[in-house]
Amino acid sequence: MFASKTDNPLRVPSVIVRAEQRTVHQADGPVRAGIPEHGRIPRYYAVKVRLLELIEELGQGAVLPTERELAERFDVSRVTLRQAVTELVLEGKLSRRQGSGTYVAGPKIVQRLSLVSYTERLRRKGIEPGRNLITLETLHAGEDLAGDLDIEPGADVIHIERVLLADGERVGLESTYLAAQRFPTLLEVFDPSSSLYACLSDKLGVVFAEANERIETVLATPREALLIGTNPALPMLLLHRVSTDAGGRPIERVRSLFRGDRFSFTTHMRADD
């Protein structure tokens, strides 16, 4: 039967199944994951659940009531409320704007992992891509980089570092390394504000065939956080990629750092993969 209702704003609804003496929670929400086995719900998490309900009611772009108003509504301290709000900011469900308030964030940009350029992936979703050049230089390859690009250690490599934009918003930071000997004219024909993939394909005749990619979660360094314009405590998605042509020859090594509150990635798998 249903648990009795209460005016306590921190109460999390549940259904009691007497036959098995266990609690069944909603299947599509965040409640079950936040409740420890002993059943005692952290106070901040109960507030977080209520905030998620409020976010759904308000809708994208709406401003959240003030911290004082929410603390009074949920009958909790501001410290407890702040912890719940901070988690929702880190998860990308809320966004803070200095001097303005806290807003309901829009949906994350969902990207499929594929051999398609950042430019093309965003345009397919109706989002305007952009880039701000940070670094364009020639360096000497260390052993690891040389191994990835199949060149001798100490050989020249072209390093291109750019802030990635989505509809004018800074969402990531990308560093690309290419063998200078293989692409001696790249710096003459490449426009840093445009797609590198398009330049390699259309102007230099490069055909991308395969790529090995690894994803992990990290925190941005102070420099990276400053360039992307985000809180250093915000989780980031870090992608490492080495792309090759049809002959298996490395084309590039890329390190892409994306805001975890704005991006998620999908892939398709088969049984024989």
Description:
This protein has 273 residues and is an alpha+beta fold. It has 2 domains: 90 residues, Arc Repressor Mutant, subunit A; 158 residues, Chorismate lyase-like (Chorismate lyase, 3-Layer(aba) Sandwich). Helices cover 27% and strands 32% of the residues. It contains 9 helices and 12 strands. It has a 6-stranded antiparallel beta sheet. Strands 1-2 form a two-stranded antiparallel ribbon. Helix 2 packs across helix 4 and helix 3 crosses helix 4. The N terminus is likely disordered.
Please indicate the percent range of residues in DSSP E strands (runs of 2 or more): 25-35%
Mean of all residue-level pLDDT scores:
84
Amino-to-carboxy terminus distance: 46 Å
Number of helices: 9
CATH class of the largest domain: Alpha Beta
Which sequence of strands runs across the widest sheet? Answer: 6-7-8-11-10-9
Overall, the morphology is elongated
Taken together, the total number of domains comes to 2
The succession of helices and strands, N to C, reads: EEHHHHEEEHEHEEHHEHEEE
Largest sheet: 6 strands, antiparallel
Number of beta-strand segments: 12
| Rg result | 24 Å
Protein structure class: alpha+beta
Keywords: DNA-binding, Transcription, Transcription regulation
Protein name: GntR family transcriptional regulator
Organism: Herbihabitans rhizosphaerae
Domain HTH gntR-type: 41-107
